[in-house]
Design brief:
Residues 53-78 are annotated as: Disordered. Residues 61-78 have a biased composition (Acidic residues). The chain has one helix at residues 44-77. By secondary structure, the protein is mostly helical. It has one domain.
Amino acid sequence: MKVEATDLKTKETDDRGRVYLGTEYANKRVTVAVVEVESDRPDDDELATAYREASDSAEALAEEWDETSDEAWETLDG
């Protein structure tokens, strides 16, 4: 059996992984093939990269704040 690309439909699942096909399939036998699954959540590598970037950014911000704070205290003491 040959399947035309135009015949393929993309559907999104609900939070339990179910797909609503529509009333045109009511009382009919339907065979479904999953061709591809995309996640809307970041994978572990993306999360690790984001965590490292946030950590680096926080360190840089803390250093900058430390310098600014020292300058402010020096101004107040002077």
